[in-house]
TrEMBL record:
Residues in the signal sequence: none
Residues reported to bind heme: Y331
UniProt enzyme class: oxidoreductase
Keywords: Heme, Iron, Membrane, Metal-binding, Oxidoreductase, Peroxidase, Transmembrane, Transmembrane helix
GO BP annotations listed: hydrogen peroxide catabolic process; response to hydrogen peroxide
Cofactor(s) essential for the protein: heme
Protein name: Catalase-related peroxidase
Domain Catalase core: 40-357
Listed transmembrane segments: 12-32
SMART domains linked: Catalase (SM01060)
CDD domains: srpA_like
Function summary: Has an organic peroxide-dependent peroxidase activity.
Amino acid sequence: MAQKPAPPPILALRWLGVGAVPAALALAFLWAGGCFSPGRVTQNRLMGELHNAGSYGHGFRRAHAKGVCVSGWFDASGDASHLSRAAVFHEQHVPVIGRFALAVGQPYASDNAATVRSMALRFMPPDAPEWRTGMNDPPVLPLRDAHDVSDFFTAQQSDPATGKPDPARVKAFGATHPWLRSAADVNAHRFISSGFADDTFHSLDSFVLSAADGTTTAVRWTMIPTQPVTPSDAKAGDREYLFRELISDIHTHALHWHLMMTVAGPHDAINDPSQIWAQDDQTLDAGTLTLNSIESEDGGPCTGITFDPLVLPPGIQPSDDPILQVRSAAYMRSFSLRAGENRSSSAVTPTLIQTPESKKS
């Protein structure tokens, strides 16, 4: 028996289904580009604002452009295992690849004691999903959401006459964002250590740990050094003095930090990284980070890694902190851009990192 042709409405639905997927993809790209919401903070908008604020680009990270690769391992203490089922809190000798960097857009900028320093880590349990985290040394982030980030980058736009941000524009940013003043004051008065090795690094954003029984706990974390902490002592005339000291330290002995988990109290803000948490919150020592190897980013193991804070294993979840989405989107766009660019040598070259013994050979 000959098959009856489908009624016109059904044919229309079939054709609609065929076209729905590419149409949805096209709309998604338009939405991501901000075509339907000119005021929306998009990846391209953030990259453009970073460029105007002096980001070098050309194959380097758009922010935290000057850095070096490190590696080592993490040993869990077990003290946080009841809060999270993530393997990293249960296992010993988890391999780690990391990166120390300065929060500058220029990869050849001179080291400066007051520049924000960062520690980024990739934990790689042998038989479990990895975990990536990026931490800075100021104790709190003086930005609340995507619009704060965009406004801040705009305020940092370089004046063509000086090559530096216009002080009036920077001052205006503070005046129009009074809710960020307390966080900025805390950071401005923070203790500045002598270098990377004796610095403390903070997650800034909040995350949610989930235990095997489904219990969830909001936390922030901090890497606290076991090395003696001394005040900053900048070396005049040495453009790479912070990295030279780090290289010397790791060549001399392994460096260690304790991963301290701070449990959110009843009045702590989970979704606002500009809010300071209570001083009497519960803390747990989750384990010890050991770093014993250092390499230039010119061929080093961290060069191709994006330390996206949303690369999380089961047992660690993002909170509803909006800055997490901003960071993730910006990191991925930065990676996409630099992957297609030719990159010159880093300021911290392989020669700079060589030991005296290897240089003789």
